[in-house]
Amino acid sequence: MSNKVITIERFIIEEERAHPGASGDFSGLLRDLTLAFKIIWREVSKAGLVNILGMAGTENIHGDQVKKLDVFADEKIYQAMDHGGYLCVMASEENEDVLQIPEKYPTGKYVLLYDPLDGSSNIDVNVNIGSIFSIYRRVTPKGQGTLEDCLQPGYKQVGAGYALYGSSTMLVYTTGDGVHGFTFDPSIGEFLLSHENIKMPKRGKIYSVNEGNYRYWFDGVKKYVKYLQEEDEATNRPYSGRYIGSMVADIHRTLMYGGIFMYPGDTKHPNGKLRLMYECNPVSFIIEQASGKASNGEKRILDIKPESLHQRVPIFAGSEEDVTIAEEFVQGKRGLD
Ligand code: P6P
Questions:
Q1: Residue from 207, 194, 230 nearest 335 by CA
Q2: Per-residue pLDDT reduced to its tens digit, 270-312
Q3: Is residue 80 part of a domain?
Q4: Distance 76 CA to ligand 1 centre (A)
Q5: Is the pTM of this model over 0.70?
Q6: Annotation marks residue 115 as catalytic
């Protein structure tokens, strides 16, 4: 590995040059998004001082209103992205309806959906949290974008990624040409290439699910988890259980080490908890680009035709063989063996 310092800006430009005829809009979009993540990082990294800076909803020592971090992150992403002229519409986990581009700014050919700060409740106990984004080309002809531009199946994404704020802050993204990771260097305020072309093992030995929901799981999931806990040296079982409860952190570990992350549907929540458009689709694009697999137990996440902006779907994402075996249990094609 060369010790060349490659910033994300340089990497994006070099990726753009590899696509002759690229307008540079997509690169500009990613650069603006990177700025938003740096601004969010600065606030999240202060969150540990929240008692000094004041809890959300109160005034801080400067007399400013302290915002909930997820509201803050939502505003900062919108403000970073609303004027570049790259987008025709946005949609956010924090807003019921689509977000229009202000009339005073030009509209562009891309669509951005995002979860500004997923798992934000974990910040109070210093657990990693993340921002997730998903990018499409618009389908309406021009001007202000609409819900139709947002409700596209995941296989039409042209970009997706996440920022993971923690002991070190990372930005991981794909534009359909592999998955690349950048680690933030606060001393120079830049995301530097640290993990080029991330690939997952075909099978791992870690499973990640909230076992507190065991009693509500359907039989297939119960049998699958019991299968993972059986002893079998040839398949590295029993697997280790790891669950952070912050999707970006659990997905990042799965991306780096392999294995499987699950948020299945159950008798209480048949569609699970996680959102299709700005959580499951973007992470599924990343997982597939890293040679993994992402399914709702029955079909490929990226093939799901969206019905509403905030719809939830079950997700089984990770190493290809692990997800395939999980599907076999969920579909009743496999019992304990
Ligand atoms: P549970 C965080 O609240 C979140 O939205 C995801 O980041 C995480 O994967 C999931 O919910 C955790 O949910 O029900 O296990 O606490």
A1: 230
A2: 999 999 999 999 999 999 999 999 999 999 999 999 999 999 9
A3: yes
A4: 23
A5: yes
A6: yes
